[in-house]
Every structure is written in structure tokens, then in C-alpha cells.
Design goal:
This protein has 199 residues and is of the alpha+beta class. It has a single domain, classed as Lipid/polyisoprenoid-binding, YceI-like (Lipocalin, Beta Barrel), CATH 2.40.128. Helices cover 15% and strands 55% of the residues. The longest helix is centred in the N-terminal third of the chain and has 20 residues. It is elongated.
């Protein structure tokens, strides 16, 4: 009987301890330090800023959070949503064209959803992350692999930065042309991002 009491007590403590260490902590996207689309054409380069975005990040077991605590198993989920209307450039015509090519009326949002963290490597107070996810733009899903740098800030927030190459044709978007086809955008674009998530 005595041993059963000890065993039950041990199991209860183990359950409480494991539940505490596995607790999920929620973060929200609170800072857009940089979020832009870079592209090229045969005449000149172009770019557009993402001025509006929301996101949620769920991490497991990070109550005492530092960069060394960040592992592949820490990530439960990550989603980012960008309203197409929140993409803006210096040119009203370019902005309108981007909204049209992204089919804003039928598909008003671009989304990214994390599917897997392949690796996390600590590097001089930062973490180099290889991640896989799904981008949905213009109603089309595209699986991508990303290389992302993560930094844990002094206030406990976490910043992700990097650059991701994509093709317009990945999303069934034909690279736009103008002036009777003499101006032609290249298929390749680059997404530059530096965003911060806070508890």
C-alpha cells in the first residue's frame, strides 16, 4: 500500500511537471521592420511594401525563453496573413496592377502556414532555421523551403528575418507586360522580411 501511494504521487508529479514544460506560449506579429516584394523588369527594377499583416506563433516549453531554448520541437504553429490591399508601392498604377494580378477581389489574402521545422542551428546568439511551409496567393498553394534567422530580443519578443525567392508562375500569375509588350517583368521575385512576434 505504501509503495502504491509513492508510485501514484510520483506519477502525479511527473504529469504536472511534463504539463508545465510542454505549455504552449502564444505570440502575435507586432512589428514589421521590413516586409517587401522585390522584382525586376527589362527596363527597371520595382518593389512594393507589405504595410499590413497579422500573424500568430505558438511555441512549446519556452517560459524561460532564450535563444538557446529555441529548437525544432519548440515550434507548434506559425501563420502569417497579408491582406492584398496592404501591398503598396510608390506608383499607384503598379499598386493597382499588383492587386489585380493577385486577384484581390476573389482572393483578398495571402497566407503562409508553417508545416515543418527541419533544423535549428545556434550561431552567435542567433538561430539559423530551415523551415517548410505553404504559401497561398491568388488562390494557389505553393510548398516552399525557407532559411530564416531568428533573434530573441531583451523584452522576450522574437524576430524572424530573411529573403525568399519565388516565381509568379508558381501561383499561375503571368509576369505582366506593358507598352505593347516592350516592358516585361521577370518571373522571379524576392520577399524580404524582418518581422517581430511578441507575447
Amino acid at each position: 500500500m505504501y509503495y502504491k501511494i509513492i508510485l501514484h504521487s510520483f506519477l502525479a508529479l511527473a504529469f504536472i511537471f511534463s504539463s508545465a514544460t510542454a505549455q504552449e506560449v502564444s505570440f502575435s506579429l507586432t512589428g514589421i521592420n521590413q516586409f517587401k516584394i522585390d522584382g525586376e523588369a527589362n527596363v527597371r527594377d520595382w518593389d512594393a511594401d507589405v504595410t499590413d499583416a497579422t500573424g500568430t506563433l505558438e511555441l512549446t516549453g519556452v517560459n524561460n525563453f532564450s535563444i538557446s531554448d529555441l529548437t525544432a520541437d519548440s515550434f507548434s504553429s506559425l501563420t502569417i496573413t497579408i491582406p492584398v490591399s496592404g501591398i503598396d508601392s510608390d506608383s499607384r498604377r503598379l499598386t493597382n496592377n499588383l492587386h489585380d494580378y493577385l486577384k484581390k477581389d476573389d482572393h483578398p489574402e495571402i497566407t503562409f502556414r508553417l508545416t515543418e521545422i527541419s533544423s535549428v542551428n545556434q550561431n552567435s546568439g542567433k538561430a539559423d532555421i530551415t523551415a517548410k511551409g505553404t504559401v497561398n496567393a491568388a488562390g494557389v498553394d505553393k510548398e516552399i523551403t525557407m532559411n530564416v534567422e531568428a533573434t530573441v530580443n531583451s523584452n522576450g519578443s522574437i524576430t524572424f528575418s530573411g529573403a525568399q525567392d519565388l516565381l509568379m508562375t508558381d501561383f499561375n500569375i503571368d509576369p505582366p507586360t506593358a507598352v505593347m509588350g516592350t516592358v516585361r517583368a521577370r518571373d522571379e521575385i524576392t520577399i524580404l522580411f524582418d518581422v517581430t512576434f511578441s507575447r
